[in-house]
Amino acid sequence: MAQIRANRVKDKLARGEVATLLMGDNSSPNLVDALGPLGFDSVLIEGEHGPVDFGDIPDLTRACDLWGMTSVVRVNVNAPGIIYRTLDVGAQGVMVPHINTKEEAQAVVEATKFAPIGARGMSSGRQGHGVADYVHQANDHTFVTILIEDIVAIDNLGEILTVDNIDVFYVAPGDLAQSMGLTGQTSHPDVLAAVDRGIAKIVDSGRVAGMLVNDSTVNEYLRKGVRYVGIPWTGWVASGARSFLDGIASAAS
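User: That's the sequence. What structure does it adopt?
Assistant: Structure tokens below.
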């Protein structure tokens, strides 16, 4: 019989290490396969804001499996059927948006974990093919992250953090800014202060904080205790393209 696949992100976080999440338009299995050699720990598959649907997830997650990357699907709603179906068709982890209360966080756990922890619908799914007793192993291998992306969630974070079996509490500045009446102003001092307040609460509670970063902010957030960092690859492509085209323009002038 096959062995259940290791979950690279869960394993690294359990060892106290930093884990990485590659974001961007990862909606093509061929693209995910090409990104595999870069060495990221996980890939975000966008089911909230992107075109990915259930029929796309099996091949996208297979591409992640080829390189040992944890496949993390961001679902579009905190609903049991949506969450456990996403896991059934191949995701090793889910990211659930707009978790604002302890009860909503507990609902995520109910949907992602089999009994006795939760009440995930009984199915071995694609990650369980050939794995003996998958339903008794899956709880230890399923990666769960929730998005803290509204100011009410920051205010309720003390209670949210009491919910067990959530691997990462990921602070999302874009929606957070919007919820504070500062749409599009992710660098506003009030937004940055709310982000820092959330990260500090998560870290001080002994839980794992996640954060969207870029090349200029990653060291700052690592110093603040963030251990799951997400970065879009699209910025690197844009920067490289500008440099290339500027070089051509300079040589031709």
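The chain has a mean pLDDT of 97.
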